[in-house]
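Re-running Glutamate synthase domain-containing protein 2 to confirm reproducibility after the cluster update. Everything else is unchanged from the original entry.
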Amino acid sequence: MLTGSQNLALTLLGWMATVFIVVVGAAALALVIVFVRDITQNRHAIHRNFPVIGHMRSLLELLGRFFRRYLYAMDREELPFNRAERSWVYSAARNRPGTAAFGSTKDIRRPGTIQFNNCPFPTLDTDSCAPSPVTIGPHCARPYNTSGLFHVSALSYGALSRPAIQALSRGAERAGCWLNTGEGGLSPYHLEGDCDLVFQIGTAKYGVRGPEGGLDEGRLREVAGHERVRMFELKLAQGAKPGKGGILPGVKVTPEIARIRGIPPYRDAISPNRHPEVDSVPELLDMMERVREVTGKPTGFKMVMGDPDWLDTLAAEIHRRGPEAAPDFITLDGAEGGSGAAPMSLMDNMGMARTEALPILVEKLDAHGLRPRVRVIASGKMVTAEGVAWALAVGADFVASGRGFMFALGCIQSLRCDQDTCPTGITTHNPRLQKGLDPADKGERVRHYVDQMTHEVGTIAHACGVHDPRELKPKHVRLVTGPGRSVNWGELFERRGVGA
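Result of re-run:
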Protein backbone atom coordinates (compact mmCIF):
# COMPACT_ATOMS: atom_id res chain seq x y z
CA MET A 1 0.00 0.00 0.00
CA LEU A 2 1.40 3.42 -1.03
CA THR A 3 2.05 6.10 1.56
CA GLY A 4 0.79 9.67 1.25
CA SER A 5 4.16 10.97 0.11
CA GLN A 6 4.42 8.26 -2.51
CA ASN A 7 0.96 9.12 -3.83
CA LEU A 8 1.98 12.77 -4.01
CA ALA A 9 5.16 11.85 -5.89
CA LEU A 10 3.21 9.74 -8.38
CA THR A 11 0.72 12.56 -8.88
CA LEU A 12 3.53 15.05 -9.54
CA LEU A 13 5.18 12.66 -11.98
CA GLY A 14 1.87 12.28 -13.75
CA TRP A 15 1.46 16.02 -14.04
CA MET A 16 5.04 16.40 -15.25
CA ALA A 17 4.53 13.71 -17.86
CA THR A 18 1.33 15.39 -19.03
CA VAL A 19 3.04 18.79 -19.27
CA PHE A 20 5.96 17.20 -21.13
CA ILE A 21 3.63 15.52 -23.61
CA VAL A 22 1.70 18.78 -24.14
CA VAL A 23 4.90 20.78 -24.65
CA VAL A 24 6.38 18.22 -27.03
CA GLY A 25 3.09 18.00 -28.90
CA ALA A 26 2.83 21.77 -29.20
CA ALA A 27 6.42 22.00 -30.39
CA ALA A 28 5.83 19.26 -32.94
CA LEU A 29 2.67 20.98 -34.17
CA ALA A 30 4.54 24.30 -34.46
CA LEU A 31 7.27 22.62 -36.49
CA VAL A 32 4.70 21.04 -38.80
CA ILE A 33 3.02 24.43 -39.30
CA VAL A 34 6.39 26.10 -40.06
CA PHE A 35 7.31 23.23 -42.39
CA VAL A 36 4.07 23.50 -44.34
CA ARG A 37 4.30 27.28 -44.52
CA ASP A 38 7.93 27.14 -45.69
CA ILE A 39 7.35 24.69 -48.53
CA THR A 40 4.26 26.52 -49.79
CA GLN A 41 5.63 30.10 -49.72
CA ASN A 42 7.69 31.61 -52.54
CA ARG A 43 9.32 34.65 -50.92
CA HIS A 44 12.38 32.99 -49.32
CA ALA A 45 14.31 30.43 -51.36
CA ILE A 46 16.34 29.21 -48.35
CA HIS A 47 13.20 28.53 -46.32
CA ARG A 48 11.53 26.70 -49.19
CA ASN A 49 14.55 24.54 -50.03
CA PHE A 50 15.45 23.91 -46.39
CA PRO A 51 12.19 24.12 -44.43
CA VAL A 52 12.42 24.76 -40.69
CA ILE A 53 16.23 24.56 -40.45
CA GLY A 54 16.56 27.47 -42.89
CA HIS A 55 15.36 29.75 -40.10
CA MET A 56 18.58 29.02 -38.19
CA ARG A 57 20.44 31.27 -40.60
CA SER A 58 18.46 34.35 -39.55
CA LEU A 59 18.77 33.41 -35.87
CA LEU A 60 22.53 32.91 -36.07
CA GLU A 61 22.92 36.13 -38.05
CA LEU A 62 21.12 37.99 -35.28
CA LEU A 63 23.02 36.30 -32.45
CA GLY A 64 26.36 36.56 -34.23
CA ARG A 65 26.52 40.28 -33.47
CA PHE A 66 26.44 39.55 -29.75
CA PHE A 67 28.78 36.53 -29.93
CA ARG A 68 31.37 38.68 -31.70
CA ARG A 69 31.01 41.44 -29.13
CA TYR A 70 31.37 39.32 -26.00
CA LEU A 71 33.28 36.22 -27.11
CA TYR A 72 35.37 36.73 -30.23
CA ALA A 73 36.25 40.37 -30.92
CA MET A 74 39.51 41.74 -29.52
CA ASP A 75 39.42 44.81 -27.28
CA ARG A 76 40.14 47.24 -30.14
CA GLU A 77 38.40 45.54 -33.07
CA GLU A 78 34.73 46.49 -32.78
CA LEU A 79 32.89 49.27 -34.57
CA PRO A 80 31.54 51.86 -34.14
CA PHE A 81 33.14 51.79 -30.67
CA ASN A 82 35.43 49.05 -29.45
CA ARG A 83 35.49 47.43 -26.04
CA ALA A 84 38.52 49.43 -24.87
CA GLU A 85 36.77 52.73 -25.59
CA ARG A 86 33.52 51.66 -23.95
CA SER A 87 35.35 50.28 -20.92
CA TRP A 88 37.18 53.57 -20.40
CA VAL A 89 33.90 55.50 -20.42
CA TYR A 90 32.23 53.00 -18.07
CA SER A 91 35.18 53.27 -15.68
CA ALA A 92 35.22 57.07 -15.83
CA ALA A 93 31.47 57.25 -15.23
CA ARG A 94 31.89 55.09 -12.14
CA ASN A 95 34.65 57.44 -10.92
CA ARG A 96 37.31 54.76 -11.08
CA PRO A 97 40.98 55.50 -11.84
CA GLY A 98 41.80 55.26 -15.55
CA THR A 99 44.94 53.21 -15.03
CA ALA A 100 46.04 50.05 -16.83
CA ALA A 101 48.89 47.57 -16.47
CA PHE A 102 51.43 45.73 -18.63
CA GLY A 103 51.39 48.09 -21.58
CA SER A 104 48.92 49.46 -24.08
CA THR A 105 46.82 47.30 -26.39
CA LYS A 106 46.69 50.16 -28.88
CA ASP A 107 48.70 49.61 -32.06
CA ILE A 108 50.69 52.83 -32.24
CA ARG A 109 52.21 51.80 -35.61
CA ARG A 110 48.91 51.89 -37.48
CA PRO A 111 48.56 54.72 -40.04
CA GLY A 112 46.16 57.39 -38.82
CA THR A 113 47.04 56.87 -35.15
CA ILE A 114 47.40 60.04 -33.10
CA GLN A 115 50.24 60.39 -30.60
CA PHE A 116 51.26 63.37 -28.44
CA ASN A 117 54.71 64.90 -28.08
CA ASN A 118 55.74 64.66 -24.46
CA CYS A 119 57.90 67.44 -23.03
CA PRO A 120 61.28 66.61 -21.41
CA PHE A 121 60.26 68.92 -18.54
CA PRO A 122 56.49 68.40 -18.10
CA THR A 123 54.31 70.72 -16.09
CA LEU A 124 54.17 69.59 -12.48
CA ASP A 125 51.07 67.70 -11.38
CA THR A 126 50.79 70.12 -8.48
CA ASP A 127 50.25 73.02 -10.89
CA SER A 128 46.69 73.92 -11.74
CA CYS A 129 45.24 72.60 -14.98
CA ALA A 130 41.91 74.36 -14.79
CA PRO A 131 40.62 75.24 -18.28
CA SER A 132 40.48 78.95 -19.05
CA PRO A 133 37.07 80.61 -19.56
CA VAL A 134 35.87 81.34 -23.09
CA THR A 135 33.26 83.90 -24.18
CA ILE A 136 30.84 83.04 -26.98
CA GLY A 137 28.89 85.80 -28.73
CA PRO A 138 30.60 88.99 -27.52
CA HIS A 139 28.31 91.07 -29.79
CA CYS A 140 25.14 89.61 -28.28
CA ALA A 141 22.99 91.23 -25.65
CA ARG A 142 23.57 88.17 -23.45
CA PRO A 143 26.92 86.52 -24.31
CA TYR A 144 27.78 83.14 -22.82
CA ASN A 145 30.91 82.54 -20.79
CA THR A 146 32.11 79.05 -19.79
CA SER A 147 35.35 77.28 -18.95
CA GLY A 148 34.02 73.78 -19.66
CA LEU A 149 35.90 71.73 -22.25
CA PHE A 150 33.58 68.76 -22.72
CA HIS A 151 29.84 69.04 -23.27
CA VAL A 152 26.75 66.99 -24.11
CA SER A 153 26.03 67.01 -27.84
CA ALA A 154 22.56 67.15 -29.40
CA LEU A 155 20.34 64.47 -27.80
CA SER A 156 16.60 64.98 -28.30
CA TYR A 157 13.78 64.00 -26.01
CA GLY A 158 12.11 61.49 -28.26
CA ALA A 159 15.28 59.93 -29.54
CA LEU A 160 16.17 59.50 -25.85
CA SER A 161 13.84 58.56 -23.02
CA ARG A 162 12.55 60.74 -20.21
CA PRO A 163 14.86 59.31 -17.49
CA ALA A 164 17.86 59.56 -19.85
CA ILE A 165 17.25 63.28 -20.42
CA GLN A 166 16.65 63.80 -16.70
CA ALA A 167 19.97 62.13 -15.89
CA LEU A 168 21.85 64.16 -18.50
CA SER A 169 20.33 67.41 -17.22
CA ARG A 170 21.22 66.67 -13.60
CA GLY A 171 24.70 65.45 -14.44
CA ALA A 172 25.48 68.38 -16.74
CA GLU A 173 24.56 70.86 -14.01
CA ARG A 174 26.85 69.16 -11.49
CA ALA A 175 29.69 68.91 -14.01
CA GLY A 176 29.39 72.51 -15.20
CA CYS A 177 28.87 71.64 -18.86
CA TRP A 178 26.05 72.39 -21.28
CA LEU A 179 23.41 70.03 -22.67
CA ASN A 180 22.27 70.43 -26.27
CA THR A 181 18.52 69.79 -26.57
CA GLY A 182 18.78 68.27 -30.03
CA GLU A 183 16.19 69.13 -32.66
CA GLY A 184 13.26 67.72 -30.68
CA GLY A 185 12.43 70.90 -28.81
CA LEU A 186 12.73 71.95 -25.17
CA SER A 187 11.17 69.46 -22.77
CA PRO A 188 10.60 69.95 -19.03
CA TYR A 189 13.16 67.19 -18.48
CA HIS A 190 15.91 69.26 -20.10
CA LEU A 191 15.13 72.01 -17.59
CA GLU A 192 14.79 69.73 -14.60
CA GLY A 193 18.48 69.67 -13.69
CA ASP A 194 18.99 73.44 -14.03
CA CYS A 195 21.98 72.99 -16.35
CA ASP A 196 23.08 75.29 -19.17
CA LEU A 197 21.27 74.46 -22.42
CA VAL A 198 21.92 74.92 -26.11
CA PHE A 199 18.63 74.95 -27.98
CA GLN A 200 18.96 73.35 -31.39
CA ILE A 201 16.68 74.54 -34.18
CA GLY A 202 16.35 71.67 -36.62
CA THR A 203 15.01 71.86 -40.14
CA ALA A 204 11.49 71.03 -38.91
CA LYS A 205 11.66 73.79 -36.25
CA TYR A 206 10.37 71.47 -33.51
CA GLY A 207 9.59 73.46 -30.38
CA VAL A 208 9.58 76.81 -32.24
CA ARG A 209 7.43 75.68 -35.13
CA GLY A 210 4.65 77.81 -36.62
CA PRO A 211 1.37 76.46 -38.07
CA GLU A 212 2.89 76.21 -41.55
CA GLY A 213 6.17 74.70 -40.33
CA GLY A 214 8.19 77.91 -40.36
CA LEU A 215 9.96 79.64 -37.48
CA ASP A 216 7.53 81.09 -34.94
CA GLU A 217 9.17 84.11 -33.31
CA GLY A 218 6.70 84.05 -30.43
CA ARG A 219 7.65 80.50 -29.47
CA LEU A 220 11.31 81.32 -30.06
CA ARG A 221 11.05 84.26 -27.66
CA GLU A 222 9.33 82.00 -25.13
CA VAL A 223 12.21 79.49 -25.29
CA ALA A 224 14.78 82.29 -24.98
CA GLY A 225 12.97 83.47 -21.86
CA HIS A 226 14.31 80.48 -19.97
CA GLU A 227 17.39 81.62 -18.08
CA ARG A 228 19.19 78.32 -18.65
CA VAL A 229 18.88 78.41 -22.44
CA ARG A 230 22.25 80.00 -23.18
CA MET A 231 22.69 79.59 -26.94
CA PHE A 232 20.85 78.67 -30.15
CA GLU A 233 22.17 76.32 -32.81
CA LEU A 234 20.82 76.07 -36.35
CA LYS A 235 21.21 72.51 -37.50
CA LEU A 236 22.33 72.30 -41.12
CA ALA A 237 23.54 68.70 -40.95
CA GLN A 238 24.72 65.99 -38.59
CA GLY A 239 27.42 63.39 -39.04
CA ALA A 240 25.14 60.37 -39.31
CA LYS A 241 23.25 61.75 -42.30
CA PRO A 242 24.50 64.85 -44.11
CA GLY A 243 21.81 65.90 -46.56
CA LYS A 244 19.02 64.11 -44.69
CA GLY A 245 16.70 65.42 -41.98
CA GLY A 246 16.00 63.90 -38.61
CA ILE A 247 14.13 60.60 -38.41
CA LEU A 248 12.03 59.61 -35.40
CA PRO A 249 9.90 56.47 -35.93
CA GLY A 250 6.21 56.85 -35.19
CA VAL A 251 6.37 54.29 -32.39
CA LYS A 252 8.51 56.78 -30.44
CA VAL A 253 6.29 59.82 -31.12
CA THR A 254 4.23 59.65 -27.93
CA PRO A 255 1.50 62.23 -27.27
CA GLU A 256 3.83 64.18 -24.96
CA ILE A 257 6.64 64.22 -27.50
CA ALA A 258 4.20 65.19 -30.24
CA ARG A 259 2.95 68.10 -28.12
CA ILE A 260 6.48 69.37 -27.45
CA ARG A 261 7.40 69.12 -31.13
CA GLY A 262 4.09 70.41 -32.47
CA ILE A 263 3.32 67.36 -34.64
CA PRO A 264 0.71 64.53 -34.71
CA PRO A 265 1.40 61.58 -32.38
CA TYR A 266 2.42 58.09 -33.54
CA ARG A 267 3.45 59.24 -37.02
CA ASP A 268 7.00 59.12 -38.33
CA ALA A 269 8.66 62.48 -37.70
CA ILE A 270 10.72 63.16 -40.83
CA SER A 271 12.44 66.54 -40.93
CA PRO A 272 13.23 68.30 -44.21
CA ASN A 273 16.75 67.74 -45.46
CA ARG A 274 17.46 71.47 -45.06
CA HIS A 275 15.82 74.63 -43.78
CA PRO A 276 13.42 75.50 -46.64
CA GLU A 277 14.08 79.23 -46.17
CA VAL A 278 17.88 78.86 -46.24
CA ASP A 279 19.26 78.22 -49.71
CA SER A 280 22.42 80.36 -49.71
CA VAL A 281 25.07 81.90 -47.49
CA PRO A 282 23.27 85.28 -47.25
CA GLU A 283 20.05 83.52 -46.23
CA LEU A 284 21.95 81.54 -43.59
CA LEU A 285 23.37 84.72 -42.08
CA ASP A 286 19.94 86.35 -42.29
CA MET A 287 18.34 83.53 -40.33
CA MET A 288 21.06 83.55 -37.68
CA GLU A 289 20.67 87.30 -37.29
CA ARG A 290 16.92 86.89 -36.97
CA VAL A 291 17.33 84.33 -34.17
CA ARG A 292 19.99 86.46 -32.45
CA GLU A 293 17.83 89.59 -32.56
CA VAL A 294 14.78 87.80 -31.13
CA THR A 295 16.68 85.95 -28.39
CA GLY A 296 19.61 88.24 -27.63
CA LYS A 297 21.75 85.14 -27.21
CA PRO A 298 24.71 83.59 -29.10
CA THR A 299 23.67 81.85 -32.30
CA GLY A 300 25.64 79.52 -34.54
CA PHE A 301 25.16 76.55 -36.79
CA LYS A 302 26.01 72.85 -36.94
CA MET A 303 27.51 71.41 -40.11
CA VAL A 304 29.31 68.45 -41.64
CA MET A 305 32.22 69.32 -43.90
CA GLY A 306 31.76 68.56 -47.58
CA ASP A 307 33.37 70.87 -50.09
CA PRO A 308 35.21 73.42 -47.87
CA ASP A 309 35.22 76.12 -50.56
CA TRP A 310 31.81 77.39 -49.42
CA LEU A 311 33.51 78.64 -46.24
CA ASP A 312 35.34 81.20 -48.36
CA THR A 313 31.98 82.48 -49.60
CA LEU A 314 30.74 82.58 -45.99
CA ALA A 315 33.79 84.56 -44.88
CA ALA A 316 33.46 87.03 -47.75
CA GLU A 317 29.80 87.69 -46.89
CA ILE A 318 30.69 88.15 -43.20
CA HIS A 319 33.36 90.71 -44.07
CA ARG A 320 30.89 92.52 -46.32
CA ARG A 321 28.36 92.80 -43.49
CA GLY A 322 30.74 93.23 -40.56
CA PRO A 323 32.05 90.97 -37.77
CA GLU A 324 28.81 91.16 -35.77
CA ALA A 325 27.09 89.22 -38.59
CA ALA A 326 29.37 86.20 -38.12
CA PRO A 327 28.08 83.06 -36.45
CA ASP A 328 29.03 83.12 -32.79
CA PHE A 329 30.09 79.49 -33.10
CA ILE A 330 30.28 76.66 -35.60
CA THR A 331 29.67 73.11 -34.46
CA LEU A 332 31.55 70.75 -36.75
CA ASP A 333 30.30 67.17 -36.76
CA GLY A 334 32.51 64.58 -38.40
CA ALA A 335 31.18 61.81 -40.60
CA GLU A 336 31.89 59.54 -37.61
CA GLY A 337 28.89 61.07 -35.82
CA GLY A 338 26.02 58.67 -35.56
CA SER A 339 23.61 58.92 -32.62
CA GLY A 340 20.64 59.38 -34.98
CA ALA A 341 18.95 56.84 -37.23
CA ALA A 342 20.07 57.28 -40.83
CA PRO A 343 20.11 55.61 -44.26
CA MET A 344 23.22 53.45 -44.51
CA SER A 345 24.05 55.03 -47.88
CA LEU A 346 24.61 58.33 -46.05
CA MET A 347 26.00 56.95 -42.78
CA ASP A 348 28.72 54.98 -44.61
CA ASN A 349 29.59 57.27 -47.48
CA MET A 350 28.76 60.93 -46.91
CA GLY A 351 30.76 63.70 -45.28
CA MET A 352 34.35 64.30 -44.25
CA ALA A 353 35.96 62.68 -41.22
CA ARG A 354 36.65 65.09 -38.34
CA THR A 355 40.40 64.33 -38.45
CA GLU A 356 40.46 66.04 -41.85
CA ALA A 357 37.56 68.44 -41.50
CA LEU A 358 38.42 70.13 -38.19
CA PRO A 359 41.90 71.35 -39.25
CA ILE A 360 40.42 72.63 -42.51
CA LEU A 361 37.70 74.59 -40.70
CA VAL A 362 40.18 76.13 -38.26
CA GLU A 363 42.54 76.94 -41.13
CA LYS A 364 39.79 78.69 -43.09
CA LEU A 365 38.65 80.75 -40.10
CA ASP A 366 42.23 81.74 -39.28
CA ALA A 367 43.01 82.64 -42.88
CA HIS A 368 39.99 84.96 -43.03
CA GLY A 369 40.68 86.55 -39.64
CA LEU A 370 37.51 85.15 -38.04
CA ARG A 371 39.14 83.65 -34.97
CA PRO A 372 38.39 84.02 -32.09
CA ARG A 373 35.22 85.84 -33.19
CA VAL A 374 33.82 82.46 -34.33
CA ARG A 375 34.22 79.74 -31.73
CA VAL A 376 34.59 76.13 -32.84
CA ILE A 377 32.80 73.18 -31.24
CA ALA A 378 34.11 69.80 -32.41
CA SER A 379 31.94 66.71 -32.45
CA GLY A 380 32.09 63.20 -33.88
CA LYS A 381 33.10 60.02 -32.02
CA MET A 382 35.33 61.64 -29.40
CA VAL A 383 34.57 59.73 -26.21
CA THR A 384 38.05 59.40 -24.67
CA ALA A 385 40.72 61.89 -23.62
CA GLU A 386 42.84 61.24 -26.72
CA GLY A 387 40.18 62.57 -29.10
CA VAL A 388 39.29 65.56 -26.94
CA ALA A 389 42.93 66.60 -26.45
CA TRP A 390 43.57 66.24 -30.19
CA ALA A 391 40.58 68.44 -31.06
CA LEU A 392 41.72 71.16 -28.67
CA ALA A 393 45.26 70.95 -30.05
CA VAL A 394 44.19 71.48 -33.66
CA GLY A 395 42.02 74.46 -32.80
CA ALA A 396 38.65 73.55 -31.28
CA ASP A 397 37.43 75.64 -28.34
CA PHE A 398 35.09 72.92 -27.08
CA VAL A 399 34.28 69.28 -27.70
CA ALA A 400 30.77 67.82 -27.59
CA SER A 401 29.83 64.15 -27.48
CA GLY A 402 26.52 62.32 -27.76
CA ARG A 403 27.36 58.65 -27.72
CA GLY A 404 30.01 59.11 -25.03
CA PHE A 405 27.32 60.33 -22.67
CA MET A 406 25.04 57.51 -23.74
CA PHE A 407 27.78 55.10 -22.64
CA ALA A 408 28.00 57.01 -19.36
CA LEU A 409 24.27 56.35 -18.93
CA GLY A 410 24.89 52.63 -19.42
CA CYS A 411 24.52 52.10 -23.20
CA ILE A 412 25.84 48.65 -24.22
CA GLN A 413 25.90 49.36 -27.98
CA SER A 414 23.06 46.94 -28.74
CA LEU A 415 22.31 48.96 -31.90
CA ARG A 416 18.56 49.07 -31.25
CA CYS A 417 18.22 52.85 -30.82
CA ASP A 418 15.58 53.26 -33.52
CA GLN A 419 13.41 50.27 -32.51
CA ASP A 420 12.08 51.43 -29.12
CA THR A 421 13.51 48.25 -27.56
CA CYS A 422 16.70 49.61 -25.98
CA PRO A 423 17.56 47.16 -23.16
CA THR A 424 19.12 49.87 -20.99
CA GLY A 425 16.14 52.26 -21.16
CA ILE A 426 18.10 55.05 -22.83
CA THR A 427 16.37 55.21 -26.23
CA THR A 428 13.02 53.59 -25.49
CA HIS A 429 9.68 54.88 -24.26
CA ASN A 430 8.67 51.48 -22.92
CA PRO A 431 8.02 52.08 -19.17
CA ARG A 432 9.18 48.57 -18.27
CA LEU A 433 12.57 49.08 -19.92
CA GLN A 434 12.93 52.60 -18.52
CA LYS A 435 12.72 51.28 -14.95
CA GLY A 436 16.34 50.19 -15.08
CA LEU A 437 17.57 53.76 -15.64
CA ASP A 438 17.65 55.71 -12.38
CA PRO A 439 18.14 59.43 -13.18
CA ALA A 440 19.79 60.14 -9.82
CA ASP A 441 22.41 57.41 -10.16
CA LYS A 442 23.05 57.99 -13.87
CA GLY A 443 23.24 61.74 -13.32
CA GLU A 444 26.18 61.12 -10.98
CA ARG A 445 27.81 58.99 -13.66
CA VAL A 446 27.46 61.83 -16.16
CA ARG A 447 29.18 64.17 -13.70
CA HIS A 448 32.00 61.71 -13.07
CA TYR A 449 32.50 61.19 -16.80
CA VAL A 450 32.98 64.92 -17.41
CA ASP A 451 35.25 65.27 -14.37
CA GLN A 452 37.41 62.32 -15.38
CA MET A 453 37.57 63.52 -18.97
CA THR A 454 38.73 66.97 -17.88
CA HIS A 455 41.30 65.42 -15.56
CA GLU A 456 42.68 63.06 -18.22
CA VAL A 457 42.90 65.80 -20.85
CA GLY A 458 44.72 67.88 -18.25
CA THR A 459 47.12 65.00 -17.69
CA ILE A 460 47.93 64.97 -21.42
CA ALA A 461 48.39 68.75 -21.36
CA HIS A 462 50.83 68.53 -18.44
CA ALA A 463 52.81 65.79 -20.20
CA CYS A 464 53.09 68.10 -23.22
CA GLY A 465 54.41 70.88 -20.98
CA VAL A 466 51.44 73.28 -20.87
CA HIS A 467 49.22 74.35 -17.98
CA ASP A 468 45.85 74.72 -19.70
CA PRO A 469 44.40 72.15 -22.13
CA ARG A 470 43.48 75.08 -24.39
CA GLU A 471 47.20 75.81 -24.71
CA LEU A 472 47.69 72.58 -26.66
CA LYS A 473 48.78 73.29 -30.25
CA PRO A 474 49.23 71.26 -33.44
CA LYS A 475 52.96 71.01 -32.65
CA HIS A 476 52.06 68.82 -29.66
CA VAL A 477 50.48 66.16 -31.88
CA ARG A 478 51.95 63.58 -34.24
CA LEU A 479 50.11 61.62 -36.93
CA VAL A 480 51.36 58.14 -37.77
CA THR A 481 51.65 57.83 -41.55
CA GLY A 482 53.16 54.33 -41.76
CA PRO A 483 55.10 51.73 -39.79
CA GLY A 484 57.95 53.57 -38.06
CA ARG A 485 56.94 56.93 -39.56
CA SER A 486 54.98 59.88 -38.21
CA VAL A 487 54.67 63.59 -38.95
CA ASN A 488 54.18 66.51 -36.62
CA TRP A 489 50.70 67.98 -37.02
CA GLY A 490 52.18 71.45 -36.82
CA GLU A 491 54.15 70.71 -39.98
CA LEU A 492 50.91 69.80 -41.73
CA PHE A 493 49.49 73.19 -40.75
CA GLU A 494 52.62 75.02 -41.86
CA ARG A 495 52.41 73.39 -45.29
CA ARG A 496 48.92 74.90 -45.57
CA GLY A 497 50.17 78.31 -44.47
CA VAL A 498 48.88 78.17 -40.90
CA GLY A 499 51.18 78.57 -37.92
CA ALA A 500 51.66 75.79 -35.40
